[in-house]
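Human: Note token order:
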Amino acid sequence: MEASRVEAIEWAFDTLFNVTEVPSWFEELLTAYSQENRLIGHGVFFSLFSGKWLPEQESWLKHLRKVSNDFHFDHVTEHFGFMTGKDFHHGAPLNIPYTTATLDIGRDRLKRICEACSCPVGLENLAFSYSPEEVKKHGAFLDQLLEPVNGFIILDLHNLYCQVHNFNLSFDDISMLYPLHRVREIHISGGSWENSIATPGRNIRRDTHDDAVPEEVFAYLEKAIDLCPHLKYVVMEQLGTGLYTDASKIAFRNDFLRMDDIIKNKNKTIAVANSFLPETLIVPPEVKEDLSLYQQQLELSNILETALSYETAMTALSSSSLAHSAWQIEQWDPAMIETAVNIAQKWKKKT
């Protein structure tokens, strides 16, 4: 900040739900970047694909309208998926089946976000999937989902790194499955490794934002900048809880400077032809819902949050309403079911 190398900031505007008073310096920082059209908003807790329209989603939109009036966002983004847990602040964002029903719900919710913020709206690609088939379908589904609002993608390169490692894919192959003309923002970050009990000897990569950026992710960034013609922002993410030692703070600074150098060395001036604003925006008065999907989401959430192991989770899933359904649980990777249990139970404990 002091060296004026931070050219824009991304604010997770819905994560201050436990904060009663925001420090004046923080508001001044947001205002300064807002006035220069260099403030972007990032949501965490909307639960885009919840099958039932919930009061929390209405409150989230109300909050978005307020902060969008208080500050000018150059764009606003949310996470893909639905939130497990008894409420949105006690859950983990997880994948959904790629069906006509979920596509309709996602499009409906994106229109409502777009109406609330009056600026371009985008979604971040997933770090977690249950199977390689899901990974391969994700980009095309995002493209269909965003089309009605002319939305964009945050291409999170560490999320791709997780998918590449967890499913033995290549970056070149997986990146070509995404509509890269929709990428307006890139994320880089670090994460952690988790040993699998379900598949002994296998390590699962997790997008935990609590460590330095891997070398491979910097290599992805070098490639991705050239592949995304409408790229406007590159953002480095890091949880403050991961900066608890002098070494971690030095690594964070070095990662930021390296990211900055990569961007500057590309020396690209892009005439961004796509505004990522919808030509027309018609928000239906009736909210799209699918109550059978919602019940399945509740059932899945309960199984993941209470399972004692991968085996008990799989047994419960096999006798649930998700069996032999569009969720295709029969194709889920055992190590990824185990990871979903760990993610859901970690989020439940920490909040």
